[in-house]
């Protein structure tokens, strides 16, 4: 199964979170009349903000509102502003099936960390499979905006205080396991659907749909 990778986006390594966002989604980002142009433009198969289940916050509901709020929430010159999660989607899943997998994991990530996820799906090409990439805020989000740091971004002292294992490797292990399981589930659904379609073509009596998408 493809491995989920993560990179911390900090002010000490990245001079502008806005440039990171533009590169992440392959489209220009305009903040306070300044345009941040991506190093490489591309058209994503899917590009959306995902909030934790049950959370609605209009003040953070667009890229132009979210990322300035991320900047404003951190005062340290070396602060971590986001985490970037990335994994290739299994070759067997393309188009809507690839997007469905990415969206399910994006929602899982948002719920697990109680944070906002900027999910982008790069479509498959002749050279590589579709790719899921998620830029996740480092703070928990609620109806009034940002709150505490999420569990993946706590200091050791804060982790102890909140009852989490000392190392964030526990979260990384959990999230990699979730990615593997969700990927396997979607592959299983695809294989079941393909088997049903093959049977239906032989009998002329069966049509299969997976997650609302006709195969």
Characterise the protein shown here.
The chain has 5 helices and 11 strands. It has helices spanning 17-25, 63-73, 96-113, 156-161, 169-203, and strands spanning 5-10, 29-31, 34-36, 46-50, 80-88, 117-122, 131-137, 139-142, 145-149, 209-210, 213-214. The protein has a single domain (5-172), classed as BirA Bifunctional Protein, domain 2. The strands form 4 sheets. A 5-stranded antiparallel β-sheet has the order 1-5-7-6-4, sandwiched between helices. The chain has a two-stranded antiparallel ribbon with strand order 2-3. A two-stranded antiparallel sheet has the order 8-9. A hairpin with an 8-residue loop joins strand 6 (117-122) and strand 7. The chain is α+β, with helices and mostly antiparallel strands. Residues 196-215 have low confidence and may be disordered.
Structural class from helices and strands?
alpha+beta
Q: How many domains comprise the coordinates?
A: 1
Main beta sheet: 5 strands, antiparallel
| Secondary structure: helix percent | 25-40%
CA-CA gap between termini:
23 Å
Contiguous uncertain segments of 5+ residues = 196-215
- Physical arrangement of strands within the biggest beta sheet: 1-5-7-6-4
Mean pLDDT: 89
CATH fold category name: BirA Bifunctional Protein, domain 2
Question: Could you tell me the strand content as a percent range?
Answer: 15-25%
- What is the correct CATH architecture? 2-Layer Sandwich
- Element string (H = helix, E = strand): EHEEEHEHEEEEHHEE
The total of beta strands comes to: 11
Question: What is the CATH class designation?
Answer: Alpha Beta
Please, what is the oligomeric state?
single chain
Shape: globular
Compute the CA-based radius of gyration: 19 Å
- Summed up, the helix count is 5
């Amino acid at each position: 199964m493809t491995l989920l990778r993560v990179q911390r986006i900090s002010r000490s390594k990245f001079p502008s979170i806005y440039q990171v966002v533009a590169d992440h989604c392959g489209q220009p980002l305009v903040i306070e009349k300044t345009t941040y142009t991506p190093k490489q433009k591309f058209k994503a198969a899917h590009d959306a903000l995902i909030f934790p289940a049950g959370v609605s916050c209009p003040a953070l509901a667009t890229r132009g509102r979210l990322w300035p709020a991320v900047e404003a929430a951190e005062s340290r010159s070396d602060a971590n502003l986001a985490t970037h999660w990335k994994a290739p989607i299994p070759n067997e899943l393309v188009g809507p099936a690839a997007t469905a997998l990415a969206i399910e994991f994006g929602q899982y990530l948002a719920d697990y960390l109680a944070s906002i996820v900027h999910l982008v799906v790069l479509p498959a090409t002749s050279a590589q499979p579709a790719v899921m990439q998620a830029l996740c805020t480092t703070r928990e989000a609620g109806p009034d905006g940002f709150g505490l740091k999420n569990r993946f971004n706590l200091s050791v002292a804060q982790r102890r205080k909140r009852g989490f294992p000392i190392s964030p490797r526990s979260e990384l292990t959990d999230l990699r396991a979730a990615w593997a399981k969700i990927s396997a589930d979607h592959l299983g659904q695809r294989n079941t659907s393909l088997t049903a379609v093959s049977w239906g073509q032989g009998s002329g009596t069966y049509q299969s749909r997976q997650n609302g998408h006709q195969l």
